[in-house]
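Give me structure tokens for this 68-residue protein.
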Amino acid sequence: MKLIKWLKTWNIMRFLRLLLAIFVIFQGIEINHVGFIFAGGIFALLPLFNIGCGSSSACSLPVSSHKK
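Here you go.
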């Protein structure tokens, strides 16, 4: 039940990021390249922990002070 609750908070972009990371991991295993496997692991952690731009608020939009 907790898994269903957890997955309901996911959006399509998060699923795509996880699928891409899994693809990179499998490609790294296929060509025996540790760098791809490591990068895919890092990329897989991002959607799992819902980490994006970081804590610096680099992706946040500026708050508009104009009132209509």
